[in-house]
Amino acid sequence: MSGIALTLVEEAGLNALQTQRQLFYDGWLLRVSPGKAKRARSVNPYFGSTLSVDVKIDHCERVYAGHGLPTLFRMTPFIQPPHLERALEERGYIVFQPTYVQLVALDRPPEAPPDTAIELAAPPIEAFVDEVAALRGSSAEQRAAHLERLASTPLATRAIVARQDGRTIGCGQVALDRGLAGIYDMVTDAAFRGRGAASEIVVELLRWAWQNGATHAYLQVDAENAPALAVYRKFGFATAYTYHYRARPDECR
User: Fold this and answer.
1) What's the predicted TM-score (pTM) here?
2) Do β-strands 167-177 and 43-44 pair in parallel, antiparallel, or remain unpaired?
3) Which of 126, 225, 231, 249 has the most Cβ atoms closer than 10 angstroms to its Cβ?
């Protein structure tokens, strides 16, 4: 799409979720950060692979069990080796949570929304993480892992909260990497969904990204999240590729 290599989008997505709780194993990136985001606590088999797949899966299962986490594999069109999908299926790993990676060209900044009762603010990252944790109902461990990832990122970022009558009703943040703006942590208070908070946050994030040199924006959204997909469609986001997770039936979480 628009001359952007999809492998670059995938790499930007990996870069946007930096964590110190990760290690490489024969080209696979094993992330063991105990947060809400599955991308931060799953195997990303993106790079080259030389060892036996069965040996590697066994090793991953030991690593994740040792950290008290389910063994999740994030399966993109770029997995290495390509027959990993079949090997996991033969072991009883099932598919769950299909996710769209959507992309849009930023030829111009989106138009500013009309004046509303919603106020936008850019708090310090620790305060932003607190707001996200409150909206998501995150545990203290999940909140700490989220803060570690965002506070340690080498990328330029901007985090936004939306408030109405002093109450935080939505959050979102964007990370810049080689002209690509990745939108993350989009969450809206259930009582305020459908009132424009998510759209206003996306406008602010895309405008800031465009002002700082972004030529494209991407995001990752659950394929079954129809309300979010409707919001992103208004900005021209379209699916560039999909991924899903594989896990044992009792560990799809």
Assistant:
1) 0.94
2) unpaired
3) 231
